[in-house]
Amino acid sequence: MDKRRAGTLTSEEYQDLLRLTDVAEAIQARRLQDLVELSRLRGISLSALMEELELSR
Question: Where are the domains of the chain?
Answer without folding.
Answer: 2-52
